[in-house]
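User: My instructor asked us to take a sequence, write out its structure as tokens, and then describe one feature of it. I'm not sure where to start. Here is the sequence I was given:
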Amino acid sequence: MILRRVARPLLASIFIAGGVNALRQPEGHAQAAKPVLDTVEAQAGSLPEQVPTDPVTLVKIDGAVKVGAGVALALGKLPRVASLLLLGTLVPSTAAAHRFWEIEDPGEKQQQQIQFLKNCGLAGGLLLAAADTEGRPSVGWRARKAAKVAGTTAKVAGKQVHDVGEDALDGVRSVQTRTHKLAGKASKAVESAIPR
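Assistant: Let's start with the prediction itself. The structure tokens for your sequence are:
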């Protein structure tokens, strides 16, 4: 659909540009992210050695994810996964860069609040992109439909088994009745054949 071919690159463009900027000038972004990283590290306790804690390294990783996932979203390659990755980078970036509630100057506070709300709007767009199944049924819908079909199939099969059982029982009763009649006729034939 043409809408997706236009909307995805538009949504991805700000992330690609921001990621390239973060990769080119990580120090400025790291300085803004440091207070948030310090708070996260203090609340999370000591992180494993494998998790980088250097703000510059984290900004470079964030930038690389933004560029990679942004390009993937723009090209329509794994767009749902790319959208979730971008959403994962947007939340900490917003929390680090647009802390309007800590700013005293009314003009700057308003600017940061606008940027914060813009990022909330981007998050909404990413959530929609992550949920977009391109017109195909979702996994949940497919599972519910499969369960309904299985239930209907089991019900039909159960009725068929019941009907076969009823038919078999009718057959047994019919054989029993005929056998009883034949036994009666055979008994009469034997009695009439024996002289008295």
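For the description part of your assignment, you could build on this observation: Helices lie at 2-24, 26-44, 55-75, 79-97, 106-131, 139-193. Try explaining in your own words what that tells you about the chain.
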